UniProtKB/TrEMBL annotation:
Segments crossing the lipid bilayer: 240-262
SUPFAM superfamilies: Lysozyme-like (SSF53955)
Keywords: Hydrolase, Membrane, Transmembrane, Transmembrane helix
Domain TtsA-like Glycoside hydrolase family: 11-95
Domain of life according to the entry: Bacteria
Name listed for the protein in its UniProt record: Glycoside hydrolase family 108 protein
Domain Peptidoglycan binding span(s) in chain numbering: 101-163
Molecular function GO labels: hydrolase activity
Length: 282
């Protein structure tokens, strides 16, 4: 019997998720077949059952969790072939909301519409897209940008990149009606990639201190300017003081220009990071 879209998508996700893992560096913590211990405990409590070792999770429990916690929330049955799998895999690895935002951004949605909730507005925008192959490429480009802006990117980039490449190949094949390639488990590709591990934007405090914008205006540039003003009347009668004043003028200018440049850099990097993490309307 042929598998439905959920079943064949789950089969691919399970290949990448592997079996039981307890990597202390993995933000997801103790995991079995992609299901975290926390998710499994919540699932059993909601059924009125006692919590137990995640190693005892049955295939039936696993499939039920994947359908309820991921597939249903991304409206998988309403998504086109290939697109559903791509969004599903992203939801499992980085959360339903994050994967939903990648889809929304790829659809060209902006502002408050990018909320990670796949509802009527998102589905309406999706119906206006005919090239699902290109849509999948945009979704996964957003995902890669997100991954590269996590603090643990250098540790897990090889596994994550290989996984995304596999998802791209399969998703685009399914979108065109093909079977797609066979895939195998990739070491570290199952590590959860969460927004909580995002890099932090550079602070503008250094620039503020240099240009006078710091707290209490205790800026270096202002201090140098005061010393320069106090020594200026004596510079005409002393070559040494004249050189000191000239040096202070140069130092004040360099410090101020450097502060302005760094503030521009910090502001730009903050905006780029926010965009990569889908934290602001664009």
């Amino acid at each position: 019997m042929a598998m439905n879209e959920f079943e064949r998508s789950l089969a691919k996700v399970l290949v990448h998720e592997g079996g039981y893992v307890h990597d202390p560096r993995d933000p997801g913590g103790e995991t079995n077949q992609g299901v975290t211990k926390k998710v499994y405990d919540d699932y059993r409590r909601n059924l009125g059952a006692k919590t137990q070792s995640i190693k005892l999770m049955t295939n039936g429990e696993r499939d039920s969790i994947y359908r309820m916690r991921y597939w249903s929330l991304i409206k998988g049955d309403s998504l086109p072939a290939g697109v559903g799998y791509v969004v599903f895999d992203g939801a499992v690895n980085s959360g339903v909301k994050q994967s939903g935002m990648w889809l929304q951004r790829a659809l060209g949605m902006t502002g408050a519409a990018v909320d990670g909730v796949i509802g009527p507005g998102t589905l309406a925008a999706l119906r206006g897209i005919n090239d699902h192959d290109a849509l999948i490429a945009r979704i996964l480009d957003r995902r890669m940008t997100f991954l590269k802006n996590l603090k643990i990117w250098k540790t897990y980039r090889k596994g994550w990149t290989s996984r995304v490449n596999d998802v791209r190949a399969i998703g685009q094949a399914w979108a065109s009606g093909s079977v797609g390639p066979e895939i195998t488990f990739i070491d570290k590709a199952n590590v959860k990639a969460r927004i909580e591990d995002a890099k932090t934007a550079p602070t503008k405090g250094i620039a503020d201190a240099a240009t006078g914008g710091g707290v209490g205006s205790g800026a270096l540039a202002a201090t140098l300017q005061q010393v320069q003003d106090q020594l200026a009347p004596f510079s005409a009668g002393s070559a040494l003081i004249g050189h000191v004043v000239a040096g202070l003028v140069i130092a004040t200018g360099v410090l101020t220009i450097g502060g302005v440049a760094y503030r521009w850099y910090a502001t730009r990097k903050k905006a780029e990071l926010a965009d990569a993490l889908d934290k602001v309307p664009v």
